[in-house]
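Please, structure for the following, as tokens.
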Amino acid sequence: MFTELKYDTQIVQNSHMGHHAIYVFKNVFEEDYLQKVLDRTKELTVKDALDHTTNVKANMTSFEKLVDDPVYDKLHSTVLSILRTCLCLRTPHKIVPINGISESWAMKHEEGEKTILHSHLGYTWAGSFCIQSDEGASELVFPDMDFATHYTKNTLYLWPSSMHHMTTPHKSKNPRYTLAFNIVDSVIFEIVEKEMKKQKAIESK
């Protein structure tokens, strides 16, 4: 029997050995949850919290904004579950590190806006989820892998954090709404979480 796949999956790799690859998963969530995420993301990206001072030359939230927002809990747990499956299938080790979301933020790219070339060095994995985008409006580019893909609605992208990437200028008059996140293994996660709590305590004084 042939049936529709839960996820339409793509892997971009130089070798089938190890897990240094770009993973693409399409049609991740049901429409009702996707709409809920879109509505919340629109609320959070009306203004640019970081004033175009990062690699993202568009409206965005702070880097930690979505971590404790319950609207994104299902998305975060799904991302971590998919990543763990990828790692389990592509490593010879019996024990695979448990990963956690250390940073998660939202972006709104309008016509002409882009994200410049950068990496997320210092973390373990990085990723992006496209909530809404017109077809062919902009690309996610990985120069080191000689790979580019058009941002597609309801699609998850995962890659090693050290891999350089960028987006091309958005070509549609309709904004593109995307999320991004940094992922660390459990040992690093505990250290980062403690530092974040310290920083929040300092900022609240």
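The CA atoms of residues 74 and 101 lie 12 Å apart. Helices lie at 31-44, 73-89, 186-204.
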